[in-house]
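Single-chain item
Fold in token form
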Amino acid sequence: MANLTLLQAVNDGLKTAMRDDETVLVFGEDVGPKGGVFLATEGITAEFGEERCFDTPLSEDGIVGAAIGMAANGLRPIVEIQFQDFIFPAFDQIVSEAAKLRYRSGGQYTAPMVIRTPYGGGIRGGLYHSQSGEVYFTHTPGLKVVIPSTPHDAKGLLIAAINDPDPVLFMEPKALYRSVKGEVPEGSYTVELSTLRTVREGSDVTVFCYGAMVPVVERAAATAAESGIECNIVDLRTLMPLDEEGVLEAAKTTGRVVTVHEAPRFCGYGAEISAMIAENVIEYMEAPIRRVTGFDTPFPNTLEHHYLPDERRVLDAIEAVHSY
């Protein structure tokens, strides 16, 4: 197995899918010969030609709209939105067209397409290059939302998303692009969508997280273990549709829950996890659920390190629910 960064794993997943299926093609802003702003598509045009990996005008609604038409007519397009912050011009195409095509056509048409986009903080990109807007899209029936946190999962989940018969928003935590490495199998393999990953087993506190928050939680859990608090860390991986049964079982295991995400707190994904647990397994809870999140403000230019949840904030929450 190759030892790859998350970014290299995405690139490998794209190339693997394109080698296996000639209907798969890639397009977006600067993804062609340049290889994308983060080089996620580096070398793809050179290998497959400009007919299968090409640049587009700066028009996110046009990019996604063209992909919907292609997907409805037998192709499997993968489009890149350069930063998730730029996805909103295409919002109507995603939530009103791609996500509803199967339903509105009575199953006659589907939109097997993937929208890749880097999201989140960690690169000091400021307010227009650091947002985490996953919950805008998890609120949309018919659309899958996937966020990997390891190179192995990045490739496997991406190939699974490409093979899926419905549209998938594949959100890549840019803070992890080059900061994590791991073994990635060669060739094609998939990680099943809507499955959880147990990062660390523990019987005291369950911590739900995803994306760039996973390594932050791992560091906090390692520190907590020094004080005898063992954390059960769950990487959600697919936010929509979520493995709800798995979430509830993980919560019941410890009776004490912390959720962590870098998006703002109000109506964040942690609120849905909290409500799900409260509605279904509240009798197992030994403490109030704690949320560790970004703040309800625009993403700051110079105070990113204060805005993003860090090991200290996560550890404080773990200790609070453990000692309740």
Remarks:
- The first strand starts at residue 2 and ends at 5.
